[in-house]
Design brief:
alpha/beta; Rossmann fold; 2 domains; 9 helices; 14 strands; globular; disordered N terminus
């Protein structure tokens, strides 16, 4: 008899529907809905106290929502799904007196790995992060950055389908932060789904496909990063050129001009909507040699600040 297999064809790794969570008289999450595609990097953003950690704790089944439901890979979230998740919390959870190697094997076995397989996988990550000389040392002997590497390895040893990283760059210098960025991008290439919670907007620009911004327990912004940038753009353009400095007229307003030797970089705003090609044709009527031209899209940090300020203004109105 041929065993029948049921394959889950859901495109979403996580679907959180109408999640509400209250602690005594404080509303931590209010009717939150998110969808996270498989194989994507999802940015979970928000100021301190916005509700991000409360949502992560619900996804990892540390707590339960007061109402709403979570689907994992198309199924209602169940205790067995925790073995398919890797969670790097902002508050690190290493045992300071325990040896690094023993601790990593312990965490791997907690996630269901056999000792032999755990040792094989541990060797790969120890070599990758150049931690061989630290395996036999106690965690308390390691720097904060080295401890962070150990915790990151513990998060990944069991090859989780869903990886949740809460402020993963804390304690890293720029070189090690870049190593971590490279690993996160490689994990995505290998098919992992990653939830990335951070205050570092430069990392969001670099890594995330989709973001949700939570503020004061409510979702205030949600979408693909490029689409959100288009929504918040202010019709500004950056122009590099040589010749006579550009000045404002009835079509463009000069916001700033920088000069370096015989070249200028000018930021202009449009007084009315037009295409980039139309603006270029207008600029070519000037006495300039056009060297570079691009639309100036807002950074994720600018969008973050603007969205939160708009929400706070609306709340207090």
């Amino acid at each position: 008899m041929i065993e029948e297999r049921v394959f889950n064809c859901s495109m979403m790794m996580i679907e959180a529907k109408s999640i509400t969570k209250t602690y005594q008289h404080h509303i931590a999450l209010n009717q939150i809905n998110i969808s996270i595609k498989k194989g994507s990097i999802f940015g979970l953003l928000g100021p301190n106290g916005a509700g991000k950690t409360s949502l992560i704790r619900i996804l990892t089944q540390i707590t339960e929502p007061d109402s709403g439901e979570v689907l994992f890979n198309g199924e209602k979230l169940q205790p067995r799904h925790i073995y398919e998740m890797g969670y790097l919390p902002e508050e690190r959870g290493l045992y300071k007196k325990m040896l690094v190697g023993e601790q990593l094997l312990y965490f791997a076995e907690l996630k269901g790995l056999k000792n032999k397989e755990a040792k094989q996988r541990l060797k790969y990550w120890i070599d990758r992060f150049e931690l061989k000389e630290w395996v036999g040392k106690k965690v308390e002997e390691l720097s904060k950055g080295m401890q962070q590497k150990v915790q990151f390895i513990a998060t990944l040893l069991h090859n989780p389908k869903l990886i949740i990283l809460d402020e993963p760059f804390s304690g890293f210098d720029p070189i090690n932060a870049q190593i971590l960025v490279d690993e996160i991008l490689l994990l995505k290439e290998q098919g992992a789904t990653i939830i990335f919670s951070t205050h570092r907007m430069d990392s969001v620009e670099l890594l995330c496909d989709h973001i949700t911004l939570i503020n004061k327990s409510e979702k205030i912004l949600d979408g693909e990063v490029n689409q959100i940038k288009q929504t918040f753009k202010t019709n500004q353009f950056e122009i590099s050129y040589s010749g006579i400095p550009i000045v404002s007229d009835d079509i463009i307003k000069v916001d700033s001009t920088e000069r370096e030797n015989l070249q200028f970089k000018t930021i202009v705003s449009l007084n009315y909507a037009m295409t980039g090609n139309q603006l270029i044709r207008h600029l070519l009527t000037r006495e300039i040699e056009l060297l570079g031209f691009k639309e100036k899209l807002p950074t994720m940090e600018e969008i973050f600040i603007q969205a939160v300020q708009q929400k706070n203004k609306y709340t207090h109105a």
